[in-house]
Amino acid sequence: MDDASVNRSADPTITCGTRVRNHQEAHHRAGRLAAALAAAGIGRGNRVAVMLRNDIEFLEVSLAIAASGANPVPINTRWQAPEVEHVLVDSAAGLVIAHTEFIDVITTALARAGLDTRIVEVAMPTELLDEAGLDRALAHPTQRHTTLEQWIRDHPEPLGHLEGAVADSMGLIYTSGTTGTPKGVLRERMTPHQLLSIAGGAANRMGLAPGGRMLVAGPLYHTSPNAVAVLALRMGTNITIMPRWDAERFLQLVDEHRITQAKIVPTMLSRLQSLPIEIRSRYNVSSLTHLIHSAAPCPPAVKRTAIDWFGDALIEYYGCTEAGTITWITAAEWLEHPGSVGRGADGSAVIIADENGTPCPPGEIGHVFVRGAEYWPSFTYLNRNSTTPGPVPGFITVGDTGYLDSDGYLYLTGRSSEVIISGGVNIYPAEIENAIMALETVEDVAVSAIPSATDLGETVAAHIVPRPDADLSAELIRANLEGQLAHYKIPTHITITTRLPRDDSGKVYKRQLRDQSR
């Protein structure tokens, strides 16, 4: 009997470190937690802030909130009190569910806002702490709040089915906030047809199936890993959760659990490639049928090496919180259109235009305007005036720049706010980043503008992370760029560093880099 047959005949499981829970138990616990939410007055129209590390309970909490009709608001676990305060106030969260590790930051954020919002504490098992490399002292709850397990014990019967609760629960989602304060995106209430279309499209393109085996490599507080994992749980897919990212551990889990599907970001691909060849060769990754990446542009050098390694399993998409997934591209398509993030799918579309909405010809860089799939709901921004229409009717822009080729494939060149203007000439950071990433000794890079000491206005700065044990210098970088880039594109300021300020979805906080370079 093959692996797939075994998985179909057994109850699928959720695994995190050494902890394993079958789906039936997870759904039952989520139903009891939903009953606790209802008893606490949390339901349709309410929002529940969730500040949890990757763990089994994160998925159970997500299911429970959806079953109650309330709206989950995941919070970045790296945020500090002022950042947390913004989301708690902006979303008007009526409850906070948080791991013990984050109780103090939540308490401080609520105090800053003058709120007395109820907190439910989630105890942290020692297995999670060990896997995440955290202090075992966090295994002891603060005793200041009701715990999640107490809530579940106090409600032995699951909440009954509430018609339309899942649709109600998907009304609000926050952007990542890498280019400013996170914005709440209020979605139009979805119809059953829209819900099924979104779920079916995602399952098909992302390779989810009953009895399949997926790996959660990214943080569940981000939209994409969260949505894919919850969908997998509803479909009966076996789920393995990484408490934190580690390149070798990723390969080990793929090999050990015969993972078929995983969702990653380009930074993870680059870090996998930084592993010595003797480590990479220890693990069999041939079980992967869908290795999906998105969230940030992937340097062509990294992508090409990844295709050599993972083959047709490597699939990329481009999208945004406001309009969902816009483009898709397979490995084979990428080799024919290197550097592209794909073409529109399921009725979605891309137009490249100038600031007045005039379309640009193929190959000319402009603003990226997108339209979501035919089944994607409309939206507004929470607590913001967003009634002003854009210059391209029916399309929106989230600040990206790029161009289309003659076949309609999209290429990203950066963010409109990050374009470097030097001596009146536009310089696009992605072109320089891709040239630097082509060096085998470079693991990561981010290019940004800094004020010029001359009359040019701005000049180019690059922050570069070398691969382990690589001999890298500013002089070597510039020497390799000579003959590849125009002289004015070669960075005048180069900083060799150990890490870049990226969020867990791979996006760089370039404002921090600009501040560091001044």
Explain this structure.
- This protein has 18 helices and 26 strands.
- With 518 residues, it is of the alpha/beta class.
- It has a nine-stranded mixed sheet with strand order 2-1-11-10-12-13-14-15-16, with helices on both faces. A five-stranded parallel sheet has the order 4-3-5-6-7, sandwiched between helices. Strands 17-18-20-21 form a four-stranded antiparallel sheet.
- The chain is globular and about 70 Å long.
- The N terminus is likely disordered.
Keywords, separated by commas or semicolons:
518 residues, alpha/beta, nine-stranded mixed sheet, five-stranded parallel sheet, 26 strands, 33% helix, disordered N terminus
Strand order of the largest sheet: 2-1-11-10-12-13-14-15-16
Kindly state the percentage of residues in helix: 25-40%
| Gross geometry | globular
- Weakly predicted, low-confidence segments: 1-9
Measure the end-to-end span: 63 Å
- What does the average pLDDT come to? 91
Structural class: alpha/beta
How big is the Rg? 23 Å
Total number of helices: 18
The tally of beta strands, per DSSP, is 26
User: Strand fraction band?
Assistant: 15-25%
Q: Biggest sheet: strands, sense, closure? A: 9 strands, mixed
Q: What order do the helices and strands come in, and which of them pair?
A:
Blueprint: H1 3-9, E1 13-16, E2 19-22, H2 23-39, E3 47-51, H3 56-68, E4 71-74, H4 81-91, E5 95-99, H5 103-113, E6 118-122, H6 126-132, E7 146-147, H7 148-153, H8 165-169, E8 172-174, E9 184-187, H9 192-206, E10 213-216, H10 223-235, E11 238-241, H11 247-257, E12 261-264, H12 266-274, H13 277-280, E13 290-293, H14 300-310, E14 314-320, E15 324-330, H15 331-336, E16 343-344, E17 349-353, E18 366-371, E19 379-381, E20 400-404, E21 410-415, E22 420-422, E23 425-427, H16 429-437, E24 442-451, E25 458-466, H17 474-481, E26 493-496, H18 510-517
Parallel strand pairs: 1-11, 3-4, 3-5, 5-6, 6-7, 10-11, 10-12, 12-13, 13-14, 25-26
Antiparallel strand pairs: 1-2, 8-9, 9-19, 14-15, 15-16, 17-18, 18-20, 20-21, 22-23, 24-25
Helix pairs in contact: 2-3, 4-5, 12-14
